[in-house]
């Protein structure tokens, strides 16, 4: 079974920070840890590589082809002979469909949810970082929303938020008329709220792993200097969280943009206009309206807003651990 | 979680005082934060439990505490919707995906971590990028690909559990491989090098040394693959028929019965939702410490 130190090292390595390798290898500074070039069992890459090529890469290319065709349920069987419409689907998607609005909804949804889950997750991590009686239980409880499958979460909140349901019942105690949460303009905020409930523990986990990299000596130094708790947080602790938190932000944004299950199950089809996020829009275009070509064009357009956080993510994650850095650089120069 | 234990043992000489030193918030504030968050998380969870033993009318009228206690919901869910078949399909598909994916991932990661070859970094980068491709973008092309395969070769994939198996397996591979890559990097190479000198082949080193040493990582990447299959609604809503339907889709049928005009079967819906969550929660409780490590390592759900 894994020793605590390997897990710790793993965590921080993936978070893109330089971590000294185990076993005192640090003492020989730029020693290049060469990778084997002889007897490479490259055939072992084949099963996984072929699968990924067949079920991910080829469909990606196929998606581009479909976007250029006027494909509906009648032409689907012999899609190769469907009429070629060039960029017609893209023009239609951008001018006559609600694609641009959906992109706006998706982007604002992802940003709002991430912006709100961020402080919740960080505060929760700070609050559970010291040992106290029952901390293990509290930590497990904090992870419940994240562990529950999204379709379960959405089903439950669908029941809670129904017009005469428990949510409105609770609100009426305070004299507030909740109204409709699963229809109309307020459905957007219902989606935001449920997404916050189910996704904040992810930020919490990454913030926690960042806090654990703060050495006890640092805490002691701050105590000797007599730092007040908020000054310590601001100037001592937060700098440690910068790396893991930035990574958490990017990944959270990616997840929120790509979230299909939550809106789909929470509202059912047809979804209210206010929550027609991109994944739902492309899904409806293909499997409700059967405009396959249009849907593929929409999906490709929507890649644009996924591409921004994805690009940042790929730059942020270190592909190789520190001791292989030399190889990385030579390969990059090639 | 395991990292916590590590830092705690490191601190033991300092004794109980260290807990005070590392404290970041004043105690009253700490208590307030913990209570607020616990309520925020637990109220909906407790509500599931209560609603699942309540009557439909009471749930529909927004009662929190059950007005009556009945376990009938738990016995009815198996006949209202074929939830049993759904759960069986989910277990078979997600379970086999988990096993196959974990072993493909360890073999792929082994080559990526230990050998130098042209395109290695591209492969690693692709692993990260492929995780972020929206499933909705691939759903239609995969569907078209599978149905064309059926019309050209006569092998029906859509509607069978095989279709889901292949799809989930492939979509789980990038993340599982990435988890194994970070895991294998933490393993010392000395044993492998010794075996190499003794003339062992790469296959032998992989199966006799790498796999036995990396069980925790293999379990984690297998569980993530399992969760991907178990939690998916997108592909299973399109690529299954009532025979091969997974639990996730079967649960949606309770929602559909509600649109029939009759009283919604809320109680059963909550009971079924709970039943669908149980396998996941059990897995999580058993492997909690490894899962949390793997999650932060890959940085992706």
Brief summary:
Chain A is mostly helical and 334 residues long. Helices cover 65% and strands 0% of the residues of chain A.
Give your account of this protein's structure.
The complex is a heterodimer of chains A (334) and B (301). Chain A has helices spanning 4-14, 46-67, 88-95, 99-127, 135-147, 150-160, 166-173, 187-211, 216-224, 229-258, 261-267, 278-287, 292-316, 325-333. With 334 residues, chain A is an all-alpha fold. Chain A starts with a helix and ends with a helix. The model of chain A is unreliable at 1-32 and 322-334 (pLDDT under 50). Chain B has two domains: 17-73, no CATH class; 76-298, MetI-like fold, CATH 1.10.3720.10. Chain B is built from 15 helices and no strands. The two termini of chain B are 16 Å apart. Chains A and B meet through helix 1, helix 2, helix 4, helix 5 and helix 6 of A and helix 1, helix 2, helix 3, helix 6 and helix 7 of B.
Keywords:
heterodimer, A: 334 residues, mainly alpha, MetI-like fold, B: 301 residues, 2 domains, 15 helices, 77% helix, 0% strand, globular
Secondary-structure topology with pairs:
The complex is a heterodimer of chains A (334) and B (301).
Chain A: H1 4-14, H2 46-67, H3 88-95, H4 99-127, H5 135-147, H6 150-160, H7 166-173, H8 187-211, H9 216-224, H10 229-258, H11 261-267, H12 278-287, H13 292-316, H14 325-333
Helix pairs in contact in A: 2-13, 3-13, 4-8, 4-10, 5-8, 6-11, 8-10, 8-11, 10-13, 12-13
Chain B: H1 2-11, H2 17-22, H3 27-52, H4 56-60, H5 72-80, H6 83-114, H7 120-131, H8 135-153, H9 161-185, H10 190-197, H11 202-213, H12 215-231, H13 234-239, H14 247-258, H15 266-298
Helix pairs in contact in B: 3-15, 5-15, 6-9, 6-12, 6-14, 7-9, 9-12, 9-15, 10-11, 12-15, 14-15
């Amino acid at each position: 079974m894994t020793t605590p130190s390997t897990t710790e090292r793993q965590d921080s390595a993936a978070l893109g920070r330089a971590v000294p390798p185990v076993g005192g290898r640090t003492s020989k500074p730029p020693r290049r840890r060469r990778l084997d070039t002889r007897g490479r069992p490259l055939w072992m890459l084949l099963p996984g590589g072929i699968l990924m090529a067949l079920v991910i890469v080829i469909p990606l290319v196929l998606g581009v082809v479909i976007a250029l065709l006027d494909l509906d349920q009648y032409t689907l069987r012999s899609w190769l002979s469907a009429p070629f419409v060039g960029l017609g689907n893209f023009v239609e998607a951008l001018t006559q469909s609600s694609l641009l609005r959906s992109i706006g909804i998706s982007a604002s949804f992802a940003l709002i949810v991430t912006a709100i889950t961020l402080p919740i997750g960080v505060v929760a991590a700070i609050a559970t970082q010291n040992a106290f009686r029952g901390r293990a239980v509290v930590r497990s409880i904090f992870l419940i929303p994240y562990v529950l499958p999204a379709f379960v979460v959405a089903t439950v909140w669908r029941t809670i938020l129904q017009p005469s349901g428990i949510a409105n019942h609770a609100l009426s105690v305070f004299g507030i008329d909740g109204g409709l949460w699963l229809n109309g303009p307020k459905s957007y905020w219902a989606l935001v709220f449920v997404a916050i409930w189910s996704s904040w523990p992810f930020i919490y986990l990454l913030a926690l792993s960042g806090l654990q990299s703060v050495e006890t000596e640092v805490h002691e130094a701050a105590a000797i200097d007599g730092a007040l708790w908020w000054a310590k947080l601001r100037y001592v602790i937060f700098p440690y969280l910068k790396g893991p938190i930035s990574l958490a932000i990017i990944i959270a944004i990616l997840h929120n943009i790509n979230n299909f299950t939550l809106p789909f199950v929470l509202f059912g089809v047809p979804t209210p206009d206010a929550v027609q996020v991109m994944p739902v829009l492309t899904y409806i275009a293909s499997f409700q309206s059967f405009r396959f070509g249009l849907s593929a064009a929409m999906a490709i357009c929507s890649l644009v807003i996924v591409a921004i956080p994805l690009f940042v993510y790929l730059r942020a994650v270190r592909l190789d651990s520190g001791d292989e850095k030399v190889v990385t650089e030579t390969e990059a120069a090639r | 979680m395991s990292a916590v234990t590590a830092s705690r043992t490191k601190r033991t000489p300092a004794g109980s005082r260290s807990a005070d030193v590392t404290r970041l918030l004043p105690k009253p504030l700490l208590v307030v934060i913990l209570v607020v968050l616990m309520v925020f998380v637990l109220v909906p969870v407790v509500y599931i439990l209560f609603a699942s033993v309540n009557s439909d009318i009471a749930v529909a009228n927004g009662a929190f505490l059950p007005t009556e206690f009945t376990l009938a919901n738990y016995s009815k869910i198996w006949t209202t919707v074929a939830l049993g078949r759904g759960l069986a399909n989910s277990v078979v598909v997600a379970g086999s995906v988990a096993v196959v994916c974990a072993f493909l991932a360890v073999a792929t990661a082994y080559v990526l971590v230990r050998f130098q070859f042209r395109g290695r970094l591209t492969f690693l980068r692709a692993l990260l990028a492929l995780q972020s491709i929206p499933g909705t973008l691939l759903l239609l092309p995969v569907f078209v690909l599978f149905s064309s395969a059926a019309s050209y070769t006569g092998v029906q994939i859509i509607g069978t559990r095989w279709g889901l198996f292949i799809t989930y397996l492939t979509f789980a591979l990038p993340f599982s491989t990435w988890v194994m890559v970070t895991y294998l990097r933490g393993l010392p190479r000395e044993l492998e090098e010794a075996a190499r000198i003794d003339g062992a082949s790469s296959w032998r080193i992989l199966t006799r040394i790498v796999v036995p040493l990396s069980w925790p990582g293999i379990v984690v990447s297998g569980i993530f693959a399992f969760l991907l299959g178990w939690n998916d609604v997108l592909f299973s809503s399109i690529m299954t028929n009532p025979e091969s339907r997974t639990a996730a889709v079967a649960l949606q049928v309770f929602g559909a019965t509600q649109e029939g005009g009759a009283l919604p079967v809320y109680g059963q819906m909550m009971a079924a939702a709970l039943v669908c969550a149980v396998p996941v929660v059990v897995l999580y409780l058993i492997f909690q410490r490894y899962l949390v490590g793997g999650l932060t390592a890959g940085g992706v759900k």
